[in-house]
Amino acid sequence: MKAPMRNPQKIEGDSSSVKESDYYEGERLSHLLGLIQRGTETSKLLNVNSLPEKIWLKQQIAIGINEVTRVLERMKPNTCDQQQQSPSVQLQVVIVVADCKPRMLTKHISNLAASRNVPVLYIRDNRRASLRLGELVKLKTALAIGVKARGNNLNQLLEREIVQRDS
């Protein structure tokens, strides 16, 4: 028999507790999504290769649970005693829809990202978070995206506005 959950702020099935302040929702969510939108548009304008938009976007962002999981698994776990060469693709930050059903679809991402020292941002918007995240990457819905560390304008914006503020 499963023990009752003592911390109501903990996400069921997740090994690390998520505080209410860790969620991006409302105006904070709009700011995050707007920031990513501006970063991708600016980076796209500075891109001299002029690739088609979908191809360029896939080079910058891992889209979907499977692709985010795949990229995280290819990254080496961070250990202090190991000198390793970095894989070709690193994730700077992972954004996950917190209110997806069933939760089992995304619960593995937080542990996997934590083992690679990749911050996870949880978003929720009254069951519309997957629609809003999908709009960001030109799809109908998305449950998870990972911003690839490419050293572009999007990465600099996220580093300055999100990652440093939350740490």
UniProtKB/TrEMBL annotation:
<dbReference type="InterPro" id="IPR029064">
    <property type="entry name" value="Ribosomal_eL30-like_sf"/>
</dbReference>
<feature type="region of interest" description="Disordered">
    <location>
        <begin position="1"/>
        <end position="20"/>
    </location>
</feature>
<dbReference type="InterPro" id="IPR004038">
    <property type="entry name" value="Ribosomal_eL8/eL30/eS12/Gad45"/>
</dbReference>
<feature type="domain" description="Ribosomal protein eL8/eL30/eS12/Gadd45">
    <location>
        <begin position="91"/>
        <end position="148"/>
    </location>
</feature>
<dbReference type="Pfam" id="PF01248">
    <property type="entry name" value="Ribosomal_L7Ae"/>
</dbReference>
<protein>
    <recommendedName>
        <fullName>Ribosomal protein eL8/eL30/eS12/Gadd45 domain-containing protein</fullName>
    </recommendedName>
</protein>
<feature type="compositionally biased region" description="Basic and acidic residues">
    <location>
        <begin position="9"/>
        <end position="20"/>
    </location>
</feature>
